[in-house]
Amino acid sequence: MATVKLLDDAEAEAIPAVKAVFDDIRAVRKSDFVNNFWRGLANDPALLKRTWEGLKAVMMAEGPLDPLVREMIYIAVSTANGCTYCIHSHTAAAKAKGMTDAQHADLLAVIGLAGQTNHLVTSMQIPVDPEFEVGHRR
Amino acid sequence: MATVKLLDDAEAEAIPAVKAVFDDIRAVRKSDFVNNFWRGLANDPALLKRTWEGLKAVMMAEGPLDPLVREMIYIAVSTANGCTYCIHSHTAAAKAKGMTDAQHADLLAVIGLAGQTNHLVTSMQIPVDPEFEVGHRR
Amino acid sequence: MATVKLLDDAEAEAIPAVKAVFDDIRAVRKSDFVNNFWRGLANDPALLKRTWEGLKAVMMAEGPLDPLVREMIYIAVSTANGCTYCIHSHTAAAKAKGMTDAQHADLLAVIGLAGQTNHLVTSMQIPVDPEFEVGHRR
Amino acid sequence: MATVKLLDDAEAEAIPAVKAVFDDIRAVRKSDFVNNFWRGLANDPALLKRTWEGLKAVMMAEGPLDPLVREMIYIAVSTANGCTYCIHSHTAAAKAKGMTDAQHADLLAVIGLAGQTNHLVTSMQIPVDPEFEVGHRR
Amino acid sequence: MATVKLLDDAEAEAIPAVKAVFDDIRAVRKSDFVNNFWRGLANDPALLKRTWEGLKAVMMAEGPLDPLVREMIYIAVSTANGCTYCIHSHTAAAKAKGMTDAQHADLLAVIGLAGQTNHLVTSMQIPVDPEFEVGHRR
Amino acid sequence: MATVKLLDDAEAEAIPAVKAVFDDIRAVRKSDFVNNFWRGLANDPALLKRTWEGLKAVMMAEGPLDPLVREMIYIAVSTANGCTYCIHSHTAAAKAKGMTDAQHADLLAVIGLAGQTNHLVTSMQIPVDPEFEVGHRR
Fold first, then answer.
1. Could you read off the pLDDT of C6-22 as tens digits, one per residue?
2. Distances (CA, A) of B135 to B7, B130, E127, E128, F82
3. I want to staple B83 with a disulfide (CB 3.0 to 4.6 A). Which of B78, D31, D59, F122 is the partner?
4. Does one domain contain both D77 and D92?
5. Which of B79, B69, D38, F36 is nearest to C122 (CA)?
6. How far apart are CA A103 and CA A109, in angstroms?
7. Residues with Cβ < 8 Å from D106, sequence gap 6 or more?
8. Start and end of every Carboxymuconolactone decarboxylase-like domain (chains A, B, C, D, E, F) (predicted)?
9. In total, how many domains does chain E have?
10. Following DSSP, what letter does each residue of E35-90 receive, concatenated?
11. Are residues A116 and A74 part of one domain?
């Protein structure tokens, strides 16, 4: 259950600003499937549009990181934030972009290790070594 | 300030189990520098050894993900967990492994986007689409 | 499933200290409905009473913030903490206090933006501008 | 210390896409002060522009929530995420928008209460009452 | 720097409701030292009193858990929440209550392990085994 | 639903490195039950082995903290991290190790209080008292 209404296709079609974004999602992804996240955001057409444009600019643009690496970074953040939906949707996206089981296992190992050392560091309140601070000090 | 003592070189030398790990850290990294995290863990030589062995197994082993990608995943987790020390040490490590400013900017953009959509999804309590659940259902 | 027993009305009636709080919840809210949170806390009558008294003092007292604003702040914290139950119960409470769909959408947009900028700031480890520190320095 | 360079005015002036955003920040805020967050984002002019446009659209637009309420929601999210910089900058912003000491105290009380009940709920794993799910079930 | 004023002794003395709590803190702890947390809360005498009464009821009452165990649980929560001040103050409190270096090391090892497995579980989205759900199902 | 396959007994038996760990889990716990966490980790036999060895070293070794206290610390971390599975599995483990309802209630009260004060401290950005810093300053 969501705390907002998830717009179905008929409801989305009836709002031009929503229809335009849904059409673009389908065109860009070459798929008729529009997942629930966008159907929830559709309650606020301006937020829907901004979020979709932001996602396209970050995840789909040409850039120094390849799309699969971006998906793995997304999964890492979503794990630490405990976002169930995000983990599911971006793990599916990563697999669709070719993530192998071995890469997934490697990703999990890094996430687990970071979780462990993050907690150890924080509990010991380790001060940042001056060696890490060279450069952009202000 | 840390909540534990950070062992200096003389103190570390005096405990054979600590000395052995510090020697390995220096040999593997080809550097005399041992950062504060290990100096804090050195209060518990068994925990020090396990953590260092775990880190070597995950971050330094041959595997499907390259070392720089692993560092970026580490930064992503550490950011969501708010671990200042970890962000500094692994950003330094990523740069040492060749992370360019453009890659860093791309990483930041993905982390920021994931932070935004994680919060939107959680606040709307979006249910997982059945399409994402195909496969490993139990 | 909860990790504690959720006391039903008969069980709650049988413990005078629990009955007293449940009676007060019903009287204050002018409703017979006692939600699961209180039924779980009822395993510890002293914790139940302290928590209910705290909630009344914060959420229901006359004060500078109106009750709906307080509910929206509650939703914001609960989202960042990933507390599903809390998001559901306080979104329902906010709607009962008159939160419109437009206000809900505005709330979501702020929560999403804060999530994004929180992550960007943390990953960049931006130092606090001295301009923000004027005043209560100690 | 930041993990990225914080561009000073001369460096910002030299990049037209950054200069344009900084000029807009100064014009919109009617102040010459550009805080460190934007100076860090300026390393990626496209991310800088998107983030500033998003902030204007959410925090400064006419809408159902007043600007001070939005700042308080921002502080609530930033607190739960442990973002020191964000707490400082948005508490300063809230005060600039008229937040009184009494409103600040009220905000803190709600944030503290939410933190407490979020933890209690999560530790007890309280199931969502069906009464909270009426409406948008899918 | 705090976002609120930290009341010094003269300021605290001038507000009877604050003075009463500060006097009780000193009497209960048998020490003249009042730490900054209470000096910040003193801006809201009612919140100060409620928080101090809650802390006495939880941390200082006779009960099934001994005071040192409670301090270690506190440190565990504070670590996962990334609360620097809380980690420092409660590690100091735990040491004052007799926490040995060996107990501290054991605590850290458990916190680190939990951080690791929490992240692994969440990233794999492991479903709860029915065996763990026997009992309080509702 | 998990994002990885959960290996059943036949699948686990077919991989010697997995079989060896599952055999050890059953032998150490004197139970045929292998919970889902290990079945998910079994996709990566090396990670499975490292995680199980780490858990044995921390949770089952003789040491200054008793096993029940360690489970309660685990629950505390898992609550703050919002790890549903971990809360369920370790609450079950704590009960199996003799945690009484009164101890559970005491644990919950401490977790809730820590959640509250963590949020209050963070929102007020209380600076660490010098009195807490005596000792291990570096």
1. 999 999 999 999 999 99
2. 50, 10, 14, 18, 25
3. B78
4. yes
5. B79
6. 10
7. C63, C64, C65, C70
8. 48-125
9. 2
10. -HHHHHHTTSHHHHHHHHHHHIIIIIS--SS-HHHHHHHHHHHHHHTT-HHHHHHH
11. yes
Confidence of residue D1 (pLDDT cuts 50, 70, 90): confident
**Encoded tokens for D50:** 């998107």
Query: Is there a domain that residue A82 lies in?
Result: yes
pLDDT of the residue at E138? 39
**CA-to-CA distance for B70 and A103, rounded, in angstroms?**
11
DSSP helix/strand/coil, E111: helix
- Determine the residue of chain C that is closest to F130 in CA distance: C138
CA distances from D49 to A17, A68, B20, C31, D63 (A): 23, 25, 51, 50, 22
Does the beta carbon of F86 lie under 8 angstroms from any beta carbon of chain A? no
Q: Is F86 on the interface with D (CB under 8 A)?
A: no
Query: Is A36's CB within 8 Å of D138's CB?
Result: yes
Based on the domain organization, do C50 and C69 belong to the same domain? Answer: no
The reply to whether F135 falls in a domain is no
Q: What domain range is C131 assigned to? A: 64-138
- Asked which of F61, F91, F107 is the last residue of a domain, the reply is F61
Query: CA A122, CA A118: separation in Å to the nearest integer?
Result: 6
Considering E17, E38, E61, which residue would you say is the last residue of a domain? E61
End-to-end CA distance of chain E: 48
Instruction: Concatenate the DSSP letters of all residues of chain A into one string.
Output: --SS----HHHHHTSHHHHHHHHHHHHHHTSS---HHHHHHTTSHHHHHHHHHHHIIIIIS--SS-HHHHHHHHHHHHHHTT-HHHHHHHHHHHHHTT--HHHHHHHHHHHHHHHHHHHHHHHHTPPPPGGGS-S---
Provide ipTM, 2 decimals.
0.96
Is residue E133 included in any domain, yes or no?
no
CA dihedral D125, F83, B113, A8 (to 10 degrees): -40
Same domain, B52 and B78: no
Residues of chain B with pLDDT under 70: 134-138
Which residues of A are less than 8 Å from B122 in CB distance?
81, 83, 85
List CB contacts (< 8 A) between D117 and chain C: 37, 51, 55, 86
How far, in Å, CA of B11 to CA of B14, rounded? 5
pLDDT-derived band of residue A134, with 50, 70 and 90 as boundaries? low
> Does residue F17 sit in the same domain as residue F71?
no
CA–CA dist C112, C80 (Å, integer): 10
> Are residues C72 and C43 part of one domain?
no
| A18-57 confidence digits (pLDDT tens) | 999 999 999 999 999 999 999 999 999 999 999 999 999 9
CATH (domain of C2): 1.20.1290.10
Token pair listed for F46: 């090396």
Residues A79 and A29 in one domain: no
DSSP string across F15-64: SHHHHHHHHHHHHHHTSS---HHHHHHTTSHHHHHHHHHHHIIIIIS--S
How large is the average pLDDT for residues F28-57? Answer: 98
- Calculate how close chain B gets to C125, using CA atoms only, in Å: 7
Q: Is residue D136 predicted with pLDDT exceeding 90?
A: no
Of A80, D54, A92, which is closest to residue B114 (Cα–Cα)?
Answer: A80
Residues D122 and D116: beta-carbon distance below 8 Å: no
Contacts B–C by Cβ distance under 8 A:
62
Residue range C126-130: mean pLDDT, rounded: 96
Residue F101 to residue C1, Cβ atoms within 8 A: no
- The verdict on a CB contact (< 8 Å) between D81 and C51 is no
